[in-house]
Amino acid sequence: MKKKVAMLLTAAMCVSLAACGGGGGDKPADSGNDAGSAGGTEQTAPPAESGDEGGDAQADAGEPVSGGTFTVAITDDPTTLQGWMVRNTNEGTVSPAIYETLLKYDETGKPQPYLLESFDADAEALTYTLVVKDGITFQDGTPMDAEAVKWNIDYYKENGVLSGSYYNYVDSVEVVDEKTVVVHMSSWDALFDYGLARTCFMCSPTAVEELGPDGFNEAPVGTGAFKVTKWVHGEGIYTERYDNYWGGTPYLDGVNFMIYASTATQQAALEVGDLDVMTLSGDSVTADALKAKGYNLTNAAIPTTGYTLCFNSIAEGPLTDVRVRQAICYAVDAETICNSLLGNGVYGTSTTQWAIPGAATYNDEVTGYGYDVEKAKALLAEAGYADGFELTINFQVGDFAKSVCQIIQAELQEIGITVTLNQIEVANYADYLGEWDGILFHPMGLGNGQFSQVAANMIPGARFGGSTFLHDDVSVGLIQEAVASDEATMDKNLKEAVKVLFQDNVELYAVAVTYSTSVTSPKVHGDYGAVQEHNATWNQLWKEAE
Length: 546
Hints:
Helix content: 25-40%
Strand order of the largest sheet: 14-18-13-17-15-16
Radius of gyration: 23 Å
Distance between the termini: 47 Å
CATH architecture of the largest domain: Roll
Number of helices: 16
CATH class of the largest domain: Alpha Beta
Strand content: 15-25%
Number of domains: 3
Structural class: alpha+beta
CATH topology of the largest domain: Dipeptide-binding Protein, domain 3
Shape: globular
CATH superfamily of the largest domain: Dipeptide-binding Protein, Domain 3
């Protein structure tokens, strides 16, 4: 089996290496071509010598240049630009330029006030008190005051895609004065600040009410450094700087998000200057190749994505038996997969949960399941499936996800499980989040930490896995007590819940944790990777020459 895995890993690397040849730089309108469409001869000239046609934001010398536009790659049209509905990867790339949140995560992953002067919790009174900073306006001139904060929290609770996860305990929102809002909770939610940092992009109430939700989707208005001027579906989203931005006038004239469907077309566009930055996740081959050509690589400071096998543990069939789920885990050689595809730890690592060793939320008692084919076969036989069965693994379009799922497909074949792979387009992925057949290979976002994701997603009423996870009394009870308790109890309970979910019940199996890697031209100043991952202001780019 090791030989089979090695062959599959080699094949995956060869595909990525083939994509690393430069080429003619497909224009955004042609980005629907497959990975092989980049074609052409490998471009060996260093990036600094490439043309400047698409690089307005770049500086030819060592000093930063104000003005110009910055072009960022997305793989497809966002499903939505309504702040309260933002969920997928492309939406997450575009949104931080337009929107901001009341709190943001620091480099340790803990929420801190951002659009707020202060954020105070009173567990005894069941209240959170929010005080808004002075001088912030939305891009249409509407004040970002206490009334706007109340409107947004109310709207998110009523209409937000994650209302059941992050606003479940919000009872009412009270405006005390022009700057002060008090959120009254029906019961205590110790992780409410994590929800506000992750999924409460401030939207202009004026714009939503005047345009309606559909009109606002085409012309969203936030407090961010850049405002949308047009959305050309199938091509890209264009923005211009907001001169009255509270953080100071942005250095850039605009940030545009152009559609390049594959890693190959993105790389080709980057190399000819049509693109200023591309983001990689789990693609060490392309990352290393571009680094060798002189491009700047920046890894996010904290883990970005936890690629996870999520079992439908309640639908009739083999997966209802915990021994079958354990067998599948034993059959997957996660460590070898990660070492081979993630640059031996440079771009990510294997782990047993949605955290890495050393993290505050990591539970040492979650030992995971090592690679043991014979134990996997024995468990299947014990469960009555010695001859195996058929299984579907669903995954979102992406080179890394596809490579991993193909390897897992071969590994499970070794123990008699025949796997059908179902590749899901990004725009359709949200349709699978509530229920799926077999296994969902899910890229769980980790920017807000393991505890927040477990507490928000592994409870009844949550959209993710609402009809697939067990929601057993033990894990749910631990989570519910945790969010209603003090910090010490929360830490203890959520670590125990992690053990139940990943180790005891095996509802989740973490295959890999990756760090998002931003690739930019040497002529671009600033740290795009850190900005992108921590929701920092886009106008902070290029303030210092490298």
